[in-house]
Amino acid sequence: MSQNIDDLDGLVRKRIRALRIARGLSLADLAARAHLSQSTLSRIENGQRRLALDQLVTLARILDTSLDQLVETAADEVVSHPVVDHGLDSLRWQIRRDPDSLILRRRLTDPPPEPSRMRAHPGHEWMVVLSGTAILLLGERRYRIEANQSAEFPTMLPHAFGSEGGPADVLMIVDNDARRGHREPEAD
Predict the structure, then answer these.
(1) Is 76 a domain residue?
(2) How many secondary structure helices (H) and strands (E) does the chain include?
(3) pLDDT tens for residues 17-52?
(4) What are the percentages of helix, strand and coil residues in the chain, rounded to 5?
């Protein structure tokens, strides 16, 4: 148990220093804002002084983070495995930090459907083309999205996807509302 506490202590100290540097603050700047001496802050960052809860709360506030984020430990599960959706020829992953959003990898093999088949639903989507060329029909517009290009749009606009000139692999992030729009279309 002592090892776990020491590991957490070292992690918190590294986070304080990393956040200070990322915010462009010198030791003197952060120490002044936290009402600490520069040497005290230096000893906190270097593990030569005990971490006090009141100081952690103050430092977290100044560094624009929460105490929870400052002391959270690494997740046990770092690697996640996709769920295969054969009906949509896609893979999907749940985002642990944002369980309402979803990551989808889809292979688009057909041209986009006729505009009359476009769908609209609540939500927001972001997509990047990994390979090939994707076509996005969005409202009255047609977008050609090539490898390494991305698109972001509200899904209340009628939209549909397809490929051009062969298969296109896309990676999408969809919010909770947009997830419902990525189920198998109902038969007419």
Answers:
(1) no
(2) 6, 9
(3) 888 988 899 999 999 999 999 999 999 889 888 888
(4) 35, 30, 35
Burial tier of 147 (Cβ tally within 10 Å: 0-12, 13-18, 19+) = middle
At what angle are helices 2-22 and 38-46 packed, to 10 degrees?
A: 130
Is the residue at 120 inside a domain?
yes
Question: What tens digit of pLDDT does each residue of 70-89 get?
Answer: 887 665 566 666 777 776 66
8 A C-beta contact, residue 112 and residue 133: no
**pLDDT at residue 186 above 60?**
no
d(CA 94, CA 79) in angstroms, rounded, equals 11
Strands 124-131 and 133-138: unpaired
Of the candidates 181, 43, 34, the residue with the CA atom closest to the CA atom of residue 106: 181
Domain that holds residue 144: 83-182
The confidence score (pLDDT) of residue 51 equals: 83
Backbone φ and ψ of 42, nearest 5°: -60, -45
